[in-house]
Amino acid sequence: MKKAILNYLWIFISLSGFTQTLKPSIGITSLPADATAICAIPTYTGSFTASGFQAGDTIPHFLLYDRNGMAFDVLTILQTGKPLLLIGGNYTCPIFRDKISKINSVAATYSNQINIFVVYGVEAHPKAPDFSPYSGTLWVTGENQNEPCLYLQPTTYGGRKQLINDMLANPLYTISVPVLIDGTCNTWWQNFGPAPNNAYLIKPNGVVFKKEAWFDKAPDNINTDINALLSATAIIEIKAIGAKIYPNPASTELNFEFGDTRPNWSIIIKDALGRQIESYSNINKSVFTLNTQSYSKGLFFYELSQNGQTAKGKFMVN
Asked: For the chain, which residues make up each domain, given as ranges?
């Protein structure tokens, strides 16, 4: 019954006045057993650029697990208030293997500002007799033969998990971000791809900011795209009351710009659990600066009010 409801209703989150909407849930709802069979994999020979979601699209809800059985719900991840980077990958894709060092570099630079995950899907270049899902023919690649990196397409969830274990056991391919496993019917791959190594930058509201058909491959540059996203989300505009809040995420201070000197602004600050930690009243400045140096890293909420008008939202401290 729960799954049926999710198939017809959009999913809403309401947290201290912040509402978030995602498209209906896709894929698994619980951890598959290792023996669960992988569904048949269709051949896809279309455009990696045109497939999947595009900038401005809202993503669907999904639940995936890592190789240790830990659940990662995309709703919970977006609730942190940070943008989300999803990178598709698989061990037999030489391009993905070559990008692992870049993934680790991006994580080292931006992990305090965005959430980053690899989503492990179907094998791009399995060994004979299995066909590549991107050609419908045998396509092992010279790189896989030389390394060697020769694997059949997994037939069970446990088999897919074992390929991840083999990849991460190779010192050349240590990945510093969580690796999530696509479900047994490959629904993440089919909805977000089909592609061997694409990437999505997603705003905290679940809307795609940028899709890269190939992760960090010209003309796309992941650092440029992340910086553009962070710049786009750096200022919170509350048009209904003519206020701006910046920078977001904050480091040492957060500015509330009211645009004029109308009297009697009030500000309440709450932590991630909704507990009030600070309040200010009778603010008559056009810009009020909140000192956040003593704040722990993470998600906080604000409430602004003036003459009966109220606005609520959230900000990050990094």
From this structure: 25-232, 236-317
Give the integer Cα–Cα distance in Å for 22 and 15. Answer: 15
Q: For residue 279, give the nearest of 295, 303, 262 by alpha carbon.
A: 303
Distance of CA 211 to the CA centre of its chain: 12
Among positive and negative, which fits the CA dihedral 260, 264, 269, 270?
A: negative
Q: Please indicate, yes or no, whether the overall pTM of this predicted structure exceeds 0.85.
A: no
Q: Are 173 and 84 in contact (CB under 8 A)?
A: no
Bridge pairing between strands 115-120 and 179-181: parallel
CATH no. for 25-232: 3.40.30.10
Whether the CB-CB separation of 113 and 318 falls below 8 Å is answered with: yes
pLDDT tens profile 140-170: 999 999 999 999 999 999 999 999 999 999 9
Cis preceding-peptide flag for 249 (omega within 30 of 0): yes
Q: How many residues does the chain have?
A: 318
Given CATH 3.30.1300.30, say whether it is the number of domain 236-317. no
**Cα angle value 204/281/307 (rounded, 5°):** 80
